[in-house]
Amino acid sequence: MHDYHMHTHFCRHASGALADYARAALAAHVSEICFTPHIPLPGFRPGFFNNRLRMDAEEFPLFLDELDRTREAFPQLTILCGVEADYLAGWEGYIERFLSGARFDFVLMSVHFLVSWPADQWVFDFSRDSRGLSRVYDDYLEAVRAGILSGLFDCLAHLDLIKQPGHPLLRTHAAEVNEILDLCRRQGMSAEINTSGTRKKIGESYPSPDIIDLMKSTGIPLVPGSDAHTPEQVGLGLDALRGNDFVRYRDRRILPHSPLADR
Prior knowledge:
The chain has a single domain (2-241), classed as Metal-dependent hydrolases (TIM Barrel, Alpha-Beta Barrel). It is globular. It has helices at 18-27, 60-73, 92-99, 132-150, 169-187, 209-218, and strands at residues 2-6, 32-35, 78-86, 106-110, 155-156, 190-194, 222-225. 30% of the residues lie in helices and 13% in strands. The chain is an alpha/beta fold. The protein has a 7-stranded parallel sheet. The longest helix is centred in the middle third of the chain and has 19 residues, at 132-150.
């Protein structure tokens, strides 16, 4: 099994050195991993969550150095260099410049914030106000669609991260979800099955099993991710995903933000 979504102390809201995660991967019989710290977003919502969501730009070279040392220390493990990059409308130029500054193996696309949302709101804490939950879903899915069309990313992470208990996206937004999956396929992007939701109140993967079925029928390449924020979470929940036909990125070195051509 392999795990393509992991955070470390560089993300500040996660803990543990890269070597701790590599050691945990070996113990969990995970043979291939990808570290995916959140990219810096200088000037975006300073102070939000006490600045505990992502590294600063000057810390990124330190991440690369620690990654190199971890690869040397664990030659029996395939360790990929990745990032989780938030799509933000109007920030495309910055995101492209950042992704072009290093040779990444894998770039996850996520949406945690919308520029139009108030500065104290994100996908885990938002006000429905007079628009209702359906309009919040509208905003989120439109941002996901725009991010896919930007062409900056390799893989769509945790598609239905916005979902609330008892309000699955397919109940009210089936057409939008199907459009997003079709765009992924046409853009050559893969999509993640993220097990972190099984550790949260929502109690299921991101995306939900019914959306995973749609992904399979659409022919989108799938990748597994634990979204580990501690070493103990590496590979957690991935055993339940065995039997899926996952894409492997072993020894494939891709240009920054360029989707893999040989899916």
